[in-house]
Amino acid sequence: MLTESYRYPDTGDHVTGMFIRRHEPYDGYWAASEDRALGKVAEQLTSILGPREGVKALDAGCGEGRLLPWLARFSARVTAADPDPDRLAKARETVVEDTELSFAVSPITELDGGPYDLVLCSHVVQHVPTSDVAPILRRLAGVTAPGGALVLAYSRSPIGRGAFSLDSVEAGGEVRSRRVPREEFDKALRDGGPALPVRYLDPEEVAADAAEAGWRTGWEWTYHVLDDLGPADEHIDRDELVNASGPLRRHLGRDLITLLRREPA
């Protein structure tokens, strides 16, 4: 469980930025892949949400507020919550026209308010203690209106092969991703330190936890495909290729974005 003294270990997203520069297959791919994923889920949201003036939204684990402008496309009233007060202070600097923004320092498991019609939880569950994932999904369901939507994005593993890593930047700027057991991952989150704990979640486990919490999976998209696709990569978009193939989608891609709906009470 995250405490009041929690601070996100990757200050300024330094480790993440170095990881991207080291691993993206070509310049600009990382941002373009995320933009496409967000664009595709936006198409889904447009078909299920009403006018933005009537939509109440929550960015659960907003960090420095990077995705607040995106979320505000669908909602004129957005609450941004994060357990790290320093990152939330950065988020408070965000200005979005014609949008009422409010902010709360809070772990997701202790959120209140709502009910929200739309919730965004982007790349949070991979950085929390393993025992927190199911409670987070339950709490988000608790503050979401029946039929409301959750956009959940996280670092994924191949199906059936969940993994844990401690990422750090070594001397010379090289990124080191050290695979560790679950117990060491959880200990690193409890103790703090310079390394960024990253969990690669099994999508089937997440889907099971979500269903138990009262969510119905409606749509998903794999992105940030960092794998070597060989000659095929020269002739077709790698994200489209992976998502068009069931077997590839089960095993490839670093990140997954999922649209879930809150089951009616």
TrEMBL record:
Residues 58-152 form the Methyltransferase type domain. One of its GO terms (biological process) is methylation. The keyword Magnesium does not apply. Keywords: Methyltransferase, S-adenosyl-L-methionine, Transferase. The keyword Plastid does not apply. CDD domains: AdoMet_MTases (cd02440). It comes from the Bacteria. GO terms for molecular function: S-adenosylmethionine-dependent methyltransferase activity. Pfam families: Methyltransf_11. This is Type 11 methyltransferase. The lineage of its organism: Bacteria, Bacillati, Actinomycetota, Actinomycetes, Pseudonocardiales.
